[in-house]
Design brief:
The protein contains 17 helices and 27 strands. The protein is of the alpha/beta class. Helix 6 packs parallel to helix 8 and helix 11 (397-408) packs across helix 13. The relative contact order is 0.10. Bound molecules: adenosine-5'-diphosphate, phosphoenolpyruvate, potassium ion (K) and magnesium ion. The site of magnesium ion (MG) has 5 residues, from helix 9. It catalyses: pyruvate + ATP = phosphoenolpyruvate + ADP + H(+). Pfam families: PK, PK_C. It comes from Lithospermum erythrorhizon. Residues 98-429 form the Pyruvate kinase barrel domain.
Amino acid sequence: MASSQALNFFVSRNSPFLNTSKPSLASNFGFILKPLLSTSPLILKCSLSSPNLDPLTIPNNGQFSVVSKNGPASDTSAIEVDSVTEAELKENGFRSTRRTKLVCTIGPATCSSEQLEALAVGGMNVARINMCHGTREWHKGVIERVRELNEEKGFAVAIMMDTEGSEIHMGDLGGTSSAKAEDGEVWTFTVRGFNSSCPERTISVNYDGFAEDVKVGDELLVDGGMVRFEVIETIGPDVKCKCTDPGLLLPRANLTFWRDGKLVRERNAMLPTISSKDWLDIDFGIAEGVDFIAVSFVKSAEVINHLKSYIKARARDSDIAVIAKIESIDSLKNLEEIILASDGIMVARGDLGAQIPLEQVPSAQQRIVQLCRQLNTPVIVASQLLESMIEYPTPTRAEVADVSEAVRQRSDALMLSGESAMGQYPEKALTVLRSVSLRIERWWREQKPQEGLDLPNIASSFTDTISEEICNSAAKMANNLGVDAIFVYTKTGHMASLVSRCRPDCPIFAFTSTISVRRRLNLQWGLIPFRLSFSDDMENNLNKTFGLLKARGMIKSGDLVIAVSDMLQSVQVMNVP
Ligand SMILES: Nc1ncnc2c1ncn2[C@@H]1O[C@H](COP(=O)(O)OP(=O)(O)O)[C@@H](O)[C@H]1O
Ligand SMILES: C=C(OP(=O)(O)O)C(=O)O
Ligand SMILES: [K+]
Ligand SMILES: [Mg+2]
């Protein structure tokens, strides 16, 4: 028996283990108990410590009785799905499942196991760690806790690591959480290093060329304009600036400087997209097996291709998806090639709004989201969706409208930043994203607004063209027939993404045999990823899936389903027997 194979044991109902989530009960047999929901079979996993244990030799010590055994996962047994989605599906039915995926940035407000669990239960599909902040040890702890929760509670939360990037930003503010800059005050921005804390009204800057690149009269924007200064004097490494728009300075806030109303790109434009610190963080991410790496301040497709080949060389088995963050003028110029090269895109509105005039951000967002859908690349809309909820328990009407707009544009995912990382109401903010998504998705299905978006043919081979046509037709049929779900059997996830791209009215059950593909699908609109081993025989696959899903109460006889697969190029329509 292989070391990580899962075995399904149906344990009698009166087993004392059915109400426990502690994995230790059977650990003396080298097995881990993993009860899912009370009606589910218990899954016993063979642990690495005793890989050769024969399952039939597990002693029945009187505490539970093994009624039947389904054999190893590679034959017939387990189907894995996120326990939160499973519960949602059972409670409210197919139509009510949320299609828009949710990403939460994890920070001091959400890093404990209890807080992470609350977010997972609240619908977090992806946990994002931002390498701009915190230490690697801190991030490692978060990753471990997420993995533990997935294992113990049946969640399927994926991990996204976001690189710092080499743009200009302020230092740590000597350990304080913020500093207030008042109108007219003179502050010193300096490239000097300080061993102890900075003198008063002094801010360190991470980019050595800063003091030489800025000129008297330049405007210095903190966080894209949250606080503004005017440069009044430069003295060696020190730049003296007068505050013109007061506000709160936050640690490691981004800095841009503007001359005659234009963003100045001096030597900092030559900084590499991936800094040497970023490469170390990327090595860390690969070692930890994160699911996504998001690259900050991408300028062209080249860096994405470079990182993808680096990952391939370093981590042959792992399948880390690379997300390009669109947050610079260059990335907008090279948008199409970047989207084509990347596994996902983030509309990083925070920094984007510091690089282009704010009033251009909404149209840029719309363009990016549409192009991503056309080119079949998942897209996340990020930053300030519910900014006021960092401090207040209810969002502003404008924020709700902003979230609605991103859902209406049919983006794959929405992201919380400060709201979940350091805000006072992380769970409430997530609830707002969830309920607004559900409401707008329902409105969409009821109103069927004219979409006016062509989905061009994107396949690069004839076989791909067939897959694409099958998915387009399946989605159209699903809408016209009002089916309950589309089933897609997919080895690489590609076929599932093609169905998702059509944004059908019903949920999409995506069956895949690898853990990494399953986690990646977490970011894509409408997909409910399942892990299931399947064969090339569709008849067999369907019967097996129906059996397993019926046993879990996730479908019932009579439900209408459309099935497609990338092994057999066909569309099947059938009622669940
Ligand atoms: N790992 C962390 N440790 C401490 N604070 C964090 C961490 N991650 C995020 N934060 C806080 O949450 C805020 C919002 O997060 P995010 O948007 O990801 O970063 P930024 O504001 O730097 O773009 C940050 O400004 C920071 O104050
Ligand atoms: C998501 C963004 O990046 P970060 O939070 O890393 O600055 C952004 O700029 O909007
Ligand atoms: K970042
Ligand atoms: Mg950014």
